[in-house]
């Protein structure tokens, strides 16, 4: 079977991109041909992948998307595929991997009414409707059930078209037998002593992930505690506004921003706390990765995977509506309470050993290849 995977951009450090790659590789492992349509591909191309980069240029993102969609449709017509699997909302999909929240709900609840007069709204609303409309045939792979009610509310999507996937963190995120040695080497590399407290924030899209909130919380720590604390943010994004914020908050070397990288397990093992105060987050895979590494978590309840943290008692989940004061207090309390951090670490490890946090690629491949996805 030839499977056509479609996404606007591939780069090695995005959560959606990593999920795409693992699902595509699982399908390839089962003997199927993998074709990829994209506007941008960054990084090495996996062996056996047929990557087709669209020769599309436009003066706006919406026009670019439309030209890309038309180009993909024409290429699939010329060179047929058995399934078209999309990782962004667009027309013509047999299967859609729902990594993004409901656009229509956000447009109506978070934007002024006149936003819906804009060309941008008309484009993204139409592309979402192409996937979720009651008359559409697209099968939908949900990685969190939190957004399903919004899609049903706006599109009356039949329930049988939704398929909830288990989480799918990589097994290399689990703490290895030599975790203490990895931690010690990591802290030596970054110049952190045992008495230092290292916080990490991991994920591309610093604004959505709430890096501004994290920096404010570090700056608000009691002076004696703040002198021991360092924050490292890792992700693929423009750091400029956050570097300016670091300067304005006078954090200096206590806050560092690094580009996306492929040794994230070392950060999870070397840190003392993961902070993830997202503004919105369909899942938040890094929350589960931290638990599997034994790293306590501080996050917001808008993350789709936040209930796993609460169920495991592997850290603190801040309830909505968010307040900066609540984050500031929670961070100070967690950093000051070493016995509690040890307990959260142990509970996260135990939960990751007992729960199915790893099988998403296999289950997604089952659904992509199922007869009803034709």
Structure report:
The chain is of the alpha/beta class. The protein folds into two domains: 2-166 and 359-373, Glycogen Phosphorylase B (Rossmann fold, 3-Layer(aba) Sandwich), CATH 3.40.50.2000; 171-354, Glycogen Phosphorylase B (Rossmann fold), CATH 3.40.50. Helix content is 43%, strand content 17%. It has helices spanning 15-29, 61-78, 103-109, 119-132, 148-155, 179-189, 206-209, 211-219, 223-226, 240-248, 264-270, 285-293, 306-312, 324-336, 338-354, 360-369, and strands spanning 2-6, 9-10, 33-38, 40-41, 50-53, 83-86, 95-98, 139-142, 162-164, 197-202, 229-234, 255-258, 273-276, 297-300, 315-318.
What is the averaged pLDDT score? 96
Superfamily (CATH H level) name of the largest domain? Glycogen Phosphorylase B
- Gyration radius, to the nearest Å? 21 Å
Tell me the name of the CATH class of the largest domain: Alpha Beta
Query: Counting H and I runs of at least 4 residues, what is the number of helices?
Result: 16
Number of domains: 2
Overall number of strands: 15
| CATH-derived topology of the largest domain | Rossmann fold
């Amino acid at each position: 079977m030839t499977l056509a995977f479609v996404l606007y951009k591939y780069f090695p450090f995005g959560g959606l991109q990593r999920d795409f790659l693992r699902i595509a590789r699982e399908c390839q492992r089962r003997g199927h041909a993998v074709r990829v349509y994209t506007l941008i591909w960054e990084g090495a191309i996996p062996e056996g992948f047929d990557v087709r980069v669209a020769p599309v240029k436009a003066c706006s993102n919406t026009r670019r998307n439309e030209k890309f969609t038309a180009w993909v449709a024409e290429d699939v017509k010329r060179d047929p595929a058995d399934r078209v699997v999309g990782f962004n909302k667009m027309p013509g999909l047999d299967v859609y991997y729902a990594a993004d929240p409901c656009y229509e709900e956000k447009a109506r609840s978070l934007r002024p009414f006149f936003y819906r007069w804009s060309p941008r709204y008309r484009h993204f609303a139409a592309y979402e409707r192409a996937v979720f409309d009651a008359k559409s045939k697209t099968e939908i792979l949900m990685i969190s059930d939190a957004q399903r009610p919004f899609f049903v509310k706006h599109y009356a999507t039949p329930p049988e078209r939704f398929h909830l996937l288990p989480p799918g963190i990589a097994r290399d995120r689990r703490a290895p037998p030599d975790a203490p040695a990895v931690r010690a080497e990591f802290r030596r590399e970054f110049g952190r002593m045992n008495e230092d407290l290292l916080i990490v924030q991991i994920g591309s899209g610093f604004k959505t992930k709430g890096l501004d909130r994290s920096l404010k919380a570090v700056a608000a720590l009691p002076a004696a505690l703040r002198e021991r604390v360092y924050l490292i943010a890792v992700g693929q994004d423009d750091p400029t506004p956050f570097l300016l914020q670091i300067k304005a908050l006078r954090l200096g070397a206590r806050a560092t921003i690094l580009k996306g990288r492929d040794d994230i397990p070392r950060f999870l093992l070397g840190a003392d706390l993961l902070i993830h105060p997202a503004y919105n987050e369909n899942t938040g895979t890094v929350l589960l990765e931290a638990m599997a590494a034994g790293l306590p978590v501080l996050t917001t309840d808008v993350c789709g995977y936040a209930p796993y943290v609460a169920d495991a008692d592997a850290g603190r989940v801040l309830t909505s509506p968010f307040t900066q004061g609540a984050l500031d207090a929670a961070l100070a309390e967690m950093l000051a309470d070493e016995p509690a951090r040890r307990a959260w670490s142990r509970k996260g490890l135990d939960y990751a050993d007992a729960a199915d946090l790893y099988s998403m690629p296999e289950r997604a491949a089952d659904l992509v290849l199922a007869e009803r996805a034709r």
